[in-house]
Structure formats: structure tokens, C-alpha cells
Write a structure and sequence with these properties.
The longest helix is centred in the middle third of the chain and has 22 residues. It is built from 12 helices and 4 strands. The protein has a single domain, classed as 3-Layer(aba) Sandwich (Rossmann fold), CATH 3.40.50. Strand 2, helix 3 and strand 3 form a beta-alpha-beta unit. 51% of the residues lie in helices and 7% in strands. With 248 residues, it is α/β, with parallel strands linked by helices. The protein has a 4-stranded parallel beta sheet with strand order 3-2-1-4, sandwiched between helices.
């Protein structure tokens, strides 16, 4: 890829999208992962002074917080950390769940975390007249590997056309800290969580599928099953037939 040209085009696109929305800048979530680090670098280029990086820990691993700080320091970001442990725990208990359970998969609680973070992002977007930049990449978006109305809730997705290896290539060009590039991708949904563990296949295999080069039939079947089960995430809410079709 011509990373230098792509970066400049993406920065221009971000400025255009914000202007078209009547917005002054961009807010985004910073997780400590490579995708959000690349988005951070792009947003900083597009809006040096009118951006906000939010770190939104919810029972978050210390390493993720440290990696987020590396990114903030590397790019000189305007950043704010908001600890969401207390509201998450209170809401989980109101809903009848045990928020202290972090050592086994619980997608309902994982999605609750993502949706709380989305609320925090849009609060600040409303407050400062910013748009929200999501951090999903083409590999993840292609199979609906995101939380509906959570990390899928955004106004723009700068990385939506790039598979994971291309995101990593952009990260290297942008001088994202190597520790962030090298870490296993994870939404930190529960203790010890990694994306590939949850998916049941690797990002390399997913990329091969997206690009039409995957030969492993078992993995292809699993990916297609995930695509079907997540198809509702990839469309606007369905409407019933028009009134004229409901009456004789």
C-alpha cells in the first residue's frame, strides 16, 4: 500500500465528514489496541486541536491502560480517562447479573460494557459538537464482529476498508508504539479474552476469507455461520410492509 497517501486521504476525508455534519472535531475511544491507535493518529492529523481520545476502562487489564497511555504520549493526544467500573457494576446488578464474574465468557455483560462506552462517547460528541469515530476494520465489520449499538455505534469508520494486516501496515507507517502493534487483539471482554479465542479462527484466516483466498472449509463454514447470525447488525432496523399492503 501507499500508506503515506492513504493516511493523507483519510485525514482529508475525516475533515470533510465532520464539516458535512456541522461538527468541530472528532471523539473516539482508545482501547490500547492497534485499531484505535491508528484511528488516534489519523484523527490527530485531521484535527490537531479539536479531538478527544477517551479511555473508558471497565474491569480493564492494566496492560491495556498502559498501552493507551503509550498512544496518548506518542501522538500528543487530548485525552481523558473515565472509569466506568461503578456504573457498569450498578447497572449489571439492577439487571440481575453478577458483575464480579470476569473469568468466564458472558457476551451479555461484554455487550453491556461496549454500550456503556458508546454512551460516554456520544455524550462528549454532543457536548463538544464532535462526531464519533469508530475503530472497526474490514475484517471485523465483514462478519459483524462488534457490539450492536456499542463499538458498532459510530458516525464514521475510518478503517472500514482495511483488513487487519493493512491496519498493521498503517500502524507501522504512523509510528504506533510497537508494543501496541504486537499485542494480541482483544476487546478485553473477560479475563484472558482474545478476539481469536472468541472467534475460533485467526485474523489471518478471516483476512483470507474476506479476500476470497481461504481454503480451510471448516473455518469457512464457521465464518459464514457467524455472518448469517450477525446479519442483523449490518442493516438498518427492518420496517413492516407499508400500510397499503396490510389492507385489502
Amino acid at each position: 500500500m501507499d500508506s503515506a497517501r492513504i493516511v493523507e486521504n483519510l485525514a482529508t476525508w475525516l475533515r470533510d465528514e465532520a464539516e458535512n455534519a456541522g461538527a468541530r472535531g472528532v471523539v473516539f475511544g482508545l482501547s490500547g489496541g492497534v485499531d484505535s491507535a491508528v484511528v488516534a493518529a489519523l484523527v490527530k492529523r485531521a484535527f490537531p486541536d479539536t479531538h478527544l481520545a477517551l479511555t473508558l476502562p471497565i474491569h480493564t487489564a492494566q496492560s491495556d491502560s498502559e498501552h493507551s497511555r503509550l498512544v496518548v504520549d506518542a501522538f500528543g493526544l487530548q485525552a481523558r480517562a473515565i472509569d466506568l467500573d461503578a456504573p457498569y457494576e450498578a447497572l449489571a446488578r439492577v439487571l440481575g447479573a453478577d458483575p464480579s464474574v470476569e473469568d468466564k465468557p458472558d457476551l451479555a455483560l461484554a455487550n453491556l460494557k461496549a454500550r456503556l462506552r458508546m454512551m460516554a462517547l456520544y455524550y462528549h460528541a454532543n457536548r463538544f459538537r464532535y462526531i464519533v469515530a469508530g475503530t472497526g476494520n474490514r475484517s471485523e465489520l465483514s462478519i459483524g464482529f462488534f457490539t450492536k449499538f456499542g463499538d458498532g455505534g459510530a458516525d464514521v469508520m475510518p478503517l472500514g476498508h482495511f483488513v487487519k494486516s493493512e491496519v498493521i501496515e498503517l500502524a507501522a507507517h504512523l509510528d504506533v508504539p510497537q508494543a501496541v502493534i504486537d499485542k494480541p487483539p482483544s476487546a478485553d471482554n473477560w479475563r484472558g479474552h482474545t478476539d481469536e479465542m472468541e472467534l475460533g479462527f485467526t485474523y489471518e484466516q478471516l483476512e483470507q476469507y474476506v479476500l476470497g483466498a481461504l481454503e480451510d472449509e471448516a473455518v469457512r463454514d464457521r465464518i459464514q455461520t457467524l455472518r448469517r447470525s450477525s446479519s442483523h447488525k449490518l442493516r438498518t432496523p427492518k420496517l413492516p410492509p407499508p400500510v397499503s399492503a396490510m389492507t385489502p
